[in-house]
Structures are given as C-alpha cells and as structure tokens.
Amino acid sequence: MNCIFCNIANQDNKNKKNWVFETENCCCFPDIDPKAPVHLLLIPKIHITSLQDIKNNNIEFINDMFLSIPKITEKLGLKSYRLISNIGESAGQSVMHLHFHILGGRKFDWPPG
Ligand code: 5GP
Ligand code: ZN
Fold first, then answer.
1. Is 39 tagged catalytic?
2. H or E segment at 74?
3. Is the pTM for the entire model greater than 0.85?
4. In angstroms, what is the span from residue 92 Cα to ligand 1's centroid?
5. Which string of b and e fits 39-58 if b means at least 16 CB within 10 Å?
6. What domains can be seen in the chain, in order of their start residue?
7. How far is the CA of 76 from the centre of ligand 1 (A)?
8. Torsion sign across C-alpha atoms 26, 27, 33, 39
9. What letters, b where the CB count within 10 A reaches 16 and e where it falls short, cover 78-109?
10. Which of 38, 50, 81, 101 would be 105's cystine partner, CB 3.0–4.6 Å?
11. What is the bridge-based pairing of β-strands 100-104 and 81-84?
C-alpha cells in the first residue's frame, strides 16, 4: 500500500529529526502546511484508515495516541489547543491514514467551517 503517513512512520532515523514525540505505537510531527503557529499531526505507526476503523486488535495504538496528547502539549507548553480528526472526504480527510491534528498558538473560531 502506498500511504504517505505509513511511509513517514516507517522512515529512517535520520529523517525523524523534526518529530516532536514518539512512542512504540505512534509518532508526532509538524504538518507540512500549517494552519496555526503550532500544527502537529499525531499518527499510529500501523495503517488505520480513520477513527471509524478502530477495532479491538488496534485499540492499543489508539490508547497510546490519546495518552500521548497531554504529554505532547505539555512538552510544547500549550495550555489551550484544538484536537481534530477529520473522518471521510466530506469532513475534509485528505490522507486516509488516521491522524489527529493538534493546533495551537492562536484563537480558533467555533463552529468550524
Ligand atoms: P486531513 O486533510 O486528512 O485532515 O489532514 C491531512 C494533513 O496532512 C494536511 O493538513 C496536510 O497538510 C498534511 N500532509 C499531507 N502530506 C504531508 C506530508 O507529506 N508531510 C506532512 N508533515 N504533512 C502532510
Ligand atoms: Zn498508512
């Protein structure tokens, strides 16, 4: 399968220099096209298409991602931030590998567009 985020998750150590956080199950790195002063992507190291595809056999990856979020934001000193996961094309998902956007460093509108 040719998936950009699988390729990122499995790349060589020398290409991981911009990663801000990593566990055995997930990794976090800056979005290539940031929409806020802080815009990170948190992804599982295995291919899961979206949150819609959580199963008992991949729940440890999801657990690890959720437990990583406060560690990442604490590390960055982000007291307020927005966590987004777009699921499916109408919601704006463009990469079909589960990811959380962690956005911070500015004020965000509600509701989102
Ligand atoms: P989505 O639109 O699926 O919710 O989010 C996908 C995100 O991945 C977008 O914000 C896009 O800028 C980002 N993205 C796409 N390709 C790459 C890439 O090769 N590297 C990084 N770091 N981000 C990417
Ligand atoms: Zn993938």
1. no
2. helix 59-76
3. yes
4. 11
5. bbbbbbbbbbebeeeeeeeb
6. 4-104 (3.30.428.10)
7. 20
8. positive
9. beebbeeebeeeeeebeebbbbbbbbbeeeee
10. 38
11. antiparallel
- Close Cβ partners of 73 (under 8 Å, ≥ 6 residues apart): 79, 81, 102, 104
Q: Is the CB of 64 under 6 A from ligand 1?
A: no
Query: Tokens representing 7?
Result: 């390729």
Backbone angles phi, psi at 40, to 5 degrees: -110, 155
pLDDT tens across 34-93, in order?
999 999 999 999 999 999 999 999 999 999 999 999 999 999 999 999 999 999 999 999
Structural tokens at position 100: 């959380």
Cα separation, 12 vs 48, whole angstroms = 21
